[in-house]
Amino acid sequence: MKTYANLFLIPFILVIVFSFFSGFTKGTDTYLVEELIKERTDILHKVYFHQIDPEKGEELLYEIETQPLLASDIRALRQFTDTDMDMVRDLEILVLEQTSNLYGKKSYRGDILWYMRGPSGDYVQSIDYSILLKKSGNLYKLSEFTPVQP
Fold it and tell me: What stretches in the chain show pLDDT beneath 70?
């Protein structure tokens, strides 16, 4: 009788453990997407405000991005000329939901609240994005970061 109880008890415990820890993996994906977006924003901000040179910015982008976003950002860095650009003070991801996860590609829909500073003062804007991560080696990198038109 005791062996039969163990046959039911062990799978029951395993189901509980896997169910509990599977909830943490979703949080780590959200954290990864948020960190990649913040790193990208920080790198572009530093180049645009002359805190690092564009070549160093390109090197840093290679670590967190892949094509086609990488080519687009490098092109933007190389064509950049001094203009009045608003400063990103901070960002907050309000909504981030995974829409697919296939063959090393993870798609998300995100709503980001941008805290900005412009010539006329501080302001806040909310923008919806389509975000795609692609697996590069054993890491996921930003591949697309596109505003969604309402």
Answer: 1-27
